[in-house]
Amino acid sequence: MPTAPATSVPVFKLYGETRHWPTPDLLHCESIPERSQLHDWNIRPHRHADLVHVLHLASGDVTLELEGMPHHLTGPLTIVVPAMAIHGFRFAEDVQGHIITLAQPLAEHLSHALGEQGQALARTDFQRLDRAGPARRIATLVAQIDEEYRQPASGRAHLLEALIQALVVELSRLVERGRPSSHRTSRPGSRANDKGHEHLTNFQALIEAQYRQQPSIESLAGQLGLTSAHLNTLCRRLADRSALQLLHERLLLEAKRQLTYTNMTIGQISDLLGFSEPAYFTRFFKRLSGFSPRDFRLRQHAAPNDVAPGQAR
Fold this sequence. Notes:
The structure is a single chain. By secondary structure, the chain is α+β, with helices and mostly antiparallel strands. 45% of the residues lie in helices and 17% in strands. The protein folds into 2 domains: 9-177, Jelly Rolls, CATH 2.60.120; 194-305, Orthogonal Bundle (Arc Repressor Mutant, subunit A), CATH 1.10.10.60. Strands 1-8-3-6-9 form a 5-stranded antiparallel sheet. A 4-stranded antiparallel sheet has the order 2-7-4-5, with no helix packed on it. The chain is globular, with a radius of gyration of 20 Å. Keywords: DNA-binding, Transcription, Transcription regulation. This is AraC family transcriptional regulator. One of its GO terms (molecular function) is sequence-specific DNA binding.
């Protein structure tokens, strides 16, 4: 089956969604049937500019398409799909399992925190769980992540991060064992060797390091050795947004997190995120989210389950 040109492959946030990241969290967890049954169990080939998928199939069959190559697999197994990898799924209707989606800032944080083991999120990979120990530990971690994610409680963010770190370590150990069913994309012309993807990855890293200073796109492009026009062209081609939109999305995400998880005032959050005055921050937030910062905070605190990703479609 020939692979469509990269520019014709749709770039989604979550499959079938065009909205911003649905919650202040940098993590999304749902069962595989929750979304796939809405699409007749067939998730057509697509890619994500800034999301990493970790799938755990407890049982059932799936035809996984990676970069145009089909792989017929049976659970239990894990699948890792890094940002910008072209992927699609056709699931059996009796499939059981979960899909955990990490926003790129969280994936990068885990990579820094875990060192080489964190690179398990940067490689396209699938692994059969044919050893009782790893299979049991991974299934337990995924169940704990799902339960904690759906029922927010005190210390939720810290516990989720700890559980995700443990899961990534387990994934790294699977890779290290070199199971025969492992698959990695290393052919010439893959995204790891593509200069455009490298520039986008470096640009996202610069955003993560500097977004609170609100640098100009010209400044960020200069740090990459690019013109702002070239950077914008790359962002629109590979991420389907302008360079400024990517910067603003990261600012908005951080604002949502601060409004949800801290008691900082609107003015303090405005200062933290580099706005010259709270009124400007309020206009920025309302333009991108549809709510004033105050109204957003009230909604989050009044009904936290209203924004659970399983309901945010």
